[in-house]
Amino acid sequence: MSDSVEAGAPKRRFIVIALVVAVVFAGLVVVAQLTSKKDAPPPTAAPSAAAPSSGVPLGPRPEELSMVRRDPKDPMAMGDVNAPVVLVLWTDLRCPFCAVFNREVLPVIEKEYIKPGKVRLEVTDIAFFGEQSEKAAAAAAAAANQGKFFEFLRAVYAEAPEKGHPDLPREKLVHFATVAGVPDMARFQRDLDDESLVTEVQAATVRAQQLTVASVPFFVAGRSALAGAQPIGTFREYLDDAIKHAAG
Hints:
- The protein is α+β, with helices and mostly antiparallel strands.
- It has one domain (3-247): Glutaredoxin, CATH 3.40.30.
- The chain has helices spanning 96-114, 131-144, 149-158, 170-180, 185-192, 195-210, 232-247; strands at residues 3-4, 21-25, 28-32, 56-57, 77-78, 85-91, 119-125, 215-216, 218-221, 224-227.
- Strands 4-10-9-6-7-5 form a six-stranded mixed β-sheet, sandwiched between helices.
- Strand 6, helix 1 and strand 7 form a beta-alpha-beta unit.
- Helix 2 crosses helix 3.
- It is globular, with a radius of gyration of 17 Å.
């Protein structure tokens, strides 16, 4: 399952996307191929279903991609900064399929891969679904300023609807910060009103689109990309393959 800029897919339909676009990024050309039953849509169209389960090759030197941060003080990352594989995730707090991944798959990945030091997770919160997505991402950044980024994401995704994009007005964002245990709510609300956080979200969204991230959730690990709220079996195969290549 993945959520595109303009449309979603049925909730229980798992989708893998391969993108056909050449992108020059940090001196490296990143190429992914999108396969579907129809012609490839533009970046703003809904993704089609595809079959590969181990990801789509990106290039020979993925470690050079600046999408991987490896900052030990990164509040939007979890896991050993020196883990052999970094799983990069692009997400949107109004994306129902991101909610499915966060609720059903991420806890297993955390237990089996992140806590044992095999994989590090680094999240970039972007806005594909309008102004409320931008403010929600800014709220997540405000929570991250107090070390509660993942708690905030869990709070939002726990209450996500079965279908469609949730309304996330300011009062709900404040509510989710309280649920997440953000310690200084006055500071959170000041940060939430900081327009520079929205500007950062907008810039991150543009960068993601330049990297041909056309839907969320979207993942890069090692040499390949994966899209959609895939079942845990798909992620095990995907991450095991990335770890194998990192060791080689």
